[in-house]
Amino acid sequence: MSRVLVCGATGYVGGRLVPRLLEEGLQVRCLVRSPEKMSDFECRDHPNLTIIQGTLDDEDSIRDAASDVDVAYYLVHAMISAGDDYDFRDRELANNFIRGLKGSTCQRIIYLGGLGEMGPDLSKHLLSRREVAEILQSSEIPTTVFRAAMIIGSGSASFEILRYLVDRLPIMITPKWVNVETQPIAIRDVLRYLVQCLDVSETVGRVVDIGGTDVLTYCEMMQVMATANGLSKRLILPVPVLTPRLSSGWISWVTPVNARIARPLAEGLRNRTVCRDDMAIQLMPGPLRGVKEAIDAALGKLAAGEIETRWSTAGEMPGDPSWSGGTTFRDERSLEVNATCQDAFHAICQIGGKYGYWGADWLWSLRGWMDKLVGGPGLRRGRRHPTEIRFGEAIDFWRVNGYHPCELVRLHAEMKLPGKAELEFHIEPVSEGRCKVRQTARFRPKGLLGLAYWYSVLPIHCFVFPTMLNGIKRDAEAMAGQTVDTCLAERGR
Question: In whole angstroms, what is the distance from residue 490 CA to residue 483 CA?
């Protein structure tokens, strides 16, 4: 079991698991939507790490990533990115995953689910975790399902909620779930189990509950957090009338976790989340931390500024190349250019700022003024450099969220829109001194207004986008001509 695929490598757990697997001497392959998300990982240049751009929406991407692997970790959860339909999205991605693995060399799947998902009256969040586990277990490939309750670690969503509530509220009026028992686990213990199981054959095809050494109520855990933070004992008043909707609204106001994430987490707290047995300890003995030790370690990492991953990095970046859910409209055009990929790339990198958009600049200016009037950035941000761009920087009302020299420039629209939009330029060689530039505009509408917006601007697209593409072709060929003239001049000397 030396070759490992990790899906969810940019998430909270996955981002911490990858370096641990590399430390074990394993060959690690990560399937990610946005490779740029891993650009700040300390292990990014490790010789045993391969980063593959792809998405779980595409079975071919999964198939390519899974070629020649022995084990596949599935650490994906759509709750952060898919809105209220995250359970449907979870099922869709899990089914795609097992179809993509079919016929591969993969001998084992490892999944991290949630404790409590076997009981009655499950929350939508825990039910979704159980459904994903069942889908993965239906595969011909043996699946190890780990089930954990709250993961305590710097940067985890549950830990952030707990820390901010205790820190900011000396008196709390809470739902009844504060008296429900749970068995939290430290993130470092989760990671140890996920790595150690590779060498323990008895875990293959099993459901393994993992937890720390303490079983306590959420109310008791809040008091442990208060003590660890040097605060006085919190006054906690449980009442029966607080609904998950009200609780999540309160959580989103007091903590950095928004209501869309807080609500499914809050709903899940009504279910008792305690290990059913000690199978994990018997099969994979090792040090386990209690709640106080786990909280102290997490607070220490926060104080030292050593947070490896954070819950908010999971899921899709705005404008990721393969958006999940809903309808995505496309306007795709391409032209062959009598220039190298490098010349075409340099021409594209001039976009915006004082240079403009290769024609119809008055339309772009009008759009910029309209955006400014409704509180958007407009065109006034301009750009940092007239010809050079970097990943993450602003260009007018765009943000560069895709950048591969001589190959790709992708811009995410930060203008005020009833939806999400991006503009992508992809360059590929055709022959020596000749390439193809593919220009793709994508728009995912939000509601009826988004649909109306897309269809209203279609006539403008028919003029603006061909004009841009022809302008890029013209500039690239001019640059190629200048290069040839320069070479001839130097030869003449």
Answer: 11
State the Cα angle at 449 between 444 and 453, rounded to 5°.
65
Total H helices, total E strands in the chain:
14, 19
Which domains are seen in the chain, by residue range?
Answer: 3-313 (3.40.50.720), 329-492 (3.30.530.20)
Amino acid (1-letter code) at residue 360: A
402-442 per-position pLDDT tens digit: 888 899 999 988 888 888 899 999 999 999 999 999 999 99
Assess whether pLDDT exceeds 80 at residue 270.
no
Residue 187: how many other CB atoms lie within 10 Å: 26
Asked whether the beta carbons of 393 and 424 are under 8 A apart, the reply is no
Does the predicted model carry a pTM greater than 0.70?
Answer: no
Mean per-residue pLDDT for 128-148? 91
CA angle 229, 232, 234 (to 5 degrees): 100
**Taking the CA of residue 38 as centre, how many other CA atoms within 13 Å lie in the half-sphere pointing to its CB?**
26
- H/E stretch holding 44 reads none
Q: Are 143 and 136 in contact (CB under 8 A)?
A: yes
Helix, strand, coil shares of the chain, percent, nearest 5, are: 40, 20, 35
Q: Buried b / exposed e across 3-19, counting CB within 10 Å, b at 16+?
A: bbbbbbbbbbbbbbbbb
Quote the CA–CA distance of 462 and 449 in Å, as a whole number: 21
Alpha carbon of 320 to those of 35, 328, 401, 420: distances in Å? 10, 12, 8, 10
Q: What is the DSSP letter of 194?
A: H
Q: Say if CB 124 and CB 267 are below 8 A apart.
A: yes
The span from the CA of 184 to the CA of 195, in Å, is: 19
Count of beta carbons in the 10 Å neighbourhood of residue 92: 18
Please report, for residues 23, 35, 39, 168, the alpha-carbon distance to residue 43 in angstroms, rounded to integers and kept in the order given: 10, 13, 9, 36
Length of the chain: 493
Adjacent-strand bridge partners of 411: 400, 423
Nearest to 270 by CA among 493, 453, 384, 121: 121
Return the closest-CA partner of residue 466 out of 359, 347, 341: 359
pLDDT digits (tens, 9 = 90+) for 166-224: 887 888 877 777 888 899 999 999 999 999 999 999 999 999 999 999 999 989 998 99
